[in-house]
Amino acid sequence: MVNRKHNRIPLAFAFALAFSALHGTPARAETPDLVSPRLITECYPRKIYPGQTTVCSFIVTAKVSAVEVEVAKFPEFRGFWTDNLSLRQGPLGLNQVYAKEIYFRATVGSYSLSPMVSRDKHTIEPMKLVVKMLGAVRGIEIASEPPQVEILPLPKPAAGKEFKGAVGRFQFLAESPSLPFQKDEPVTLRYLLVGDGNFQDILTPKLEFPDFVEVISSRAILEGANPAMRKTFEYSLVVHEEKSFSLPPGQMLALDPAMSQYYDVTIPGVEFRAMPKPPLEQAAARGDVLATIATGEPTFYSAVTDKVWFWIAQGIFGVLFLIASILQFMSYRREQEERSPLFVLRLRYEIALEAARNDRVEDFLRLSDEISVAMLRLIANTPPSLSRVATLERAKGKLDETTLREVSALFAARDNYLYSPERTLTVPVEKLQTTLDGLFRIKKAA
């Protein structure tokens, strides 16, 4: 499919030269009347809530199979979070479309848009293009038509519920279910938020700490890019009492745009374990060390070195220290794994499977497309700015022919379902799941 698309440009040049030879006109003559171009804007989905993502494509249409385009003015999105997915300039081969009259079309640029929850007004300023025939000196400047996208008002939360701007499907992970601390010493509590939604709009959740816990500061750290975006929330605390306690689970209200209703995202509870200060620090605080030195009496450390139980205690302490080190290393490895893009993509894959089980085919295809593109970027080590077709081309050297065909079939299934009038699924859902499982196995083996 990719090769046929790009081969239309040389054929268009050949037709232009043949036309020139037959009619005695130079191949570079300006023929703007034959182009009849338009720049339309297609957005999917067309109805969205603030915080929900839609993809808007700027598509040039004409009555010829190849044109040359140049961006005169980029579109401006005010009140949106934006991500430029693709942009094309120069000679373009157009795909033929059969309607009431035959015409040709090609996508110039695509943008991922998410209306900001905190803004009441959202506007899209048009894109402007200069379109001309291949080889022409001058062309026609056209502006994009207004996009047909409707931003729905947010539903009203239930009584007693406070909405903090989360729109999508999310999951909270605690960095550690048990957190040791010492009295009057700073300790850091961290939560990792993963899933699919508007991470940029989500504010730091307010947790209910006991009265003897002082919150020094809190901050939110946004990491990664879609579809592997995540957000870390950090709380710097000081506990003023030397006793263990439990922080109960919390709740964050979020809107599921697919179901048009709110749901609670559980914030896991954490156990705080009080750790006593070392004996030397306690003695120093009481002044016992200075008193021992002043009287010249034998110290604790010099008196017990000849005792057998002292060395037994040292051995037990060494074993406990080794076990604690192993547990800390395992916790560190688990934390690194949870922060990896592959782990976040695996969680998004679980959300996609849930959509498939609930017969939400559109959500499943959209998430599967985003996950497969992200997996190809990880496998081929390509930048996010490349389109999915270019990313698939880069991954050819690292994937076998069977996997390449399956991924291409996944892309084609998604496009056919979203843009064909019949909205039929050309590949079974089980086959698409097998393709995604294969990509995860390839990345894990690499």
Structural class label: alpha+beta
Residue windows where pLDDT falls under 50 for at least 5 positions: 1-34, 289-296
Radius of gyration: 31 Å
Strand content: 25-35%
* Silhouette: elongated
Mean of the pLDDT scores?
82
Total number of distinct structural domains: 3
Strand order of the largest sheet: 17-18-16-14-20-21
Distance between the termini: 28 Å
Please give the number of β-strands.
22
> Can you give the helix content as a percent range?
25-40%
Number of helices: 10
The largest sheet, given as strand count, sense and whether it forms a barrel, is: 6 strands, mixed
Task: Kindly list the characteristics that best describe this protein.
single chain; alpha+beta; Immunoglobulin-like; 3 domains; six-stranded mixed sheet; five-stranded antiparallel sheet
